[in-house]
Amino acid sequence: MAAVGWQEAVGVIGLGQMGGGMARFLSGQVATFGYDVRPEAREALSRAGGRSCSSLEELAAASRVWVSSLPDGAAVRTACLGPRGLESLGRPGDILVELSTISPDEIREVAARLEARGMAVVDGSVTGGPEEAATGRMTVLAAGEPGLLGRVRPLLELLGEHVHLLGAVGEAKAVKLVNNVMSLGNVLVAAEAFTLGLKAGVPAERLYAILSTAGGRSDHFVRRFPRAIRGDLAPGFALALGVKDLRLALDFARQAGSPLPATAVMEELYAMACRAGRGEQDFVAILAQYREWAGMAPQADREA
């Protein structure tokens, strides 16, 4: 899992569930600095033994290789291209490994702008949840100039147990959107089918025990549905972020000329769950929403 040879300081931009987990993990391996716009996120890193920075300027001065994990394209644009962003703070030779789930066009713009200032950009993505981020067990995708990918590969191997290298900038974001369409689709169809089983009178635990060994199972079903059955909807991946990713995928598909009719239906169903107040719950809360749509007694949701 761990790569031999990466010794450089790393600055982590964005200390949410994924970025915070990465920062805590990296702090045990190399000099690591972290920044987030939220003071409580910076304080959490400090309590965990990491080195938090009070500003992006401080982080950029302390490190020359940065890993960003931010919630959306607007946050990436602010951190990278804003008036006090990396575009103005960075120096020639600095490297950004951008891991947020944003569109291929957005990462291409960031790369072009930073490269014009002499910096280098890796188009990256990760799969896995907060637990994998905090233990270096993610799957990491990376695209960009081959020499640059070789330079940062030891860092990527530190972050993840599986590393996949792609081609031009934009490809890692594209593959991440493809993966998230599959993941969100798996969970939604499982929730719909599982609710039918519940309506047929099969107890939830018994139904899960059968389906978790049957041909229709998926990794997300096996890992996430036990929590949903218990009513534990604390977000590992918030439902609202799933809606954002599906909309990114639909926009990308329109540009590519690839129809995604099933994804359009998925987006509307997840959006309906958001409008019902489930946006900050884990995306497996779609099971609780299906129970509600089916007229079943609500579970006692636990969100923390």
Automatic annotation (TrEMBL):
The active site is at 176. Pfam families: NAD_binding_11, NAD_binding_2. Keywords: NAD, Oxidoreductase. Residues 170-288 form the 3-hydroxyisobutyrate dehydrogenase-like NAD-binding domain. One of its GO terms (molecular function) is NAD binding. Residues 10-167 form the 6-phosphogluconate dehydrogenase NADP-binding domain. InterPro entries: 6-PGluconate_DH-like_C_sf, 6PGD_dom2, 6PGDH_NADP-bd, HIBADH-like_NADP-bd, HIBADH-related, NAD(P)-bd_dom_sf. Belongs to the HIBADH-related family. This is 3-hydroxyisobutyrate dehydrogenase.
